[in-house]
# Entry
Amino acid sequence: MLVTALGTSAGIGRGVATTSFLVGATTLIDCGSGVGTLPVERLEKIERVLLTHSHLDHCGFLPFLADCHANRGGPGVTVHSQPETLAALRAHLFSGALWPDYTRLPTPENPWVRLAPLAVGERVALDGGVATALPAAHSVPAIGWLVEGPRRAFAFTGDTGPCPAFWDAVSRVPTLSDVVSEVSYLNRDSASAERFGHLSAEKLAPLLASLPDGVRLWVSHLEPGREDAMMAEIRATLPSRVEVAAIRSGDTIAL
Ligand SMILES: [Zn+2]
Ligand SMILES: [Zn+2]
# Structure
């Protein structure tokens, strides 16, 4: 099972897009602008979205994905996330004011967008693997995801501030090979990171104590235009035993 990064940035700009990962052929983690880089033939194969939280850079392309399925006769998508997140989608993104309410079209009984609530610790079966909702600590209700494939596992923090429970959970997964963690701020802006439920390098560093040796760390959610400066600071701040790289659109992780 292959995880392909479609969008990994905190914002937009040439060459970057907001959060979306394709897992195999039928699953998305988050539905930010990165999903818009897929050809329509692959968009219509997506069956489910594992959504971390309700911020637009993670869910804003759901209405367009639903549109693609509606126009091309795709199966529609099931969105898995916490009840609070799904309630926000229903109230704001699919209220009928911004876009057609695909949670009730073509019929309320069998809509293009199906909302499936779950709690931290619950699992979702994938084609060739399983996903588990992990804890996160953001400015709105949020989760991370663990995806276990046939041989390896990868975990994604989503948007989060310091959340020791996430790192405790992933460090107990024997097949864990890769973790994608957000870092949204430079160390000088750690107070803003704390205020908005994000991480800086110095806030991430102590959380890595329990991370097993050999697990590759990827960084996402960097600020567009500041990627190089942020990565230089991250490398200088994190423990030297941790292998760290920025994850960019097109990067893949084989599970
Ligand atoms: Zn967010
Ligand atoms: Zn975000």
Remarks:
- DSSP finds eight helices and 14 strands in the chain.
- The chain has a mean pLDDT of 97.
- The radius of gyration is 17 Å.
- Residues 2-254 form a domain with the Metallo-beta-lactamase; Chain A fold (CATH 3.60.15.10).
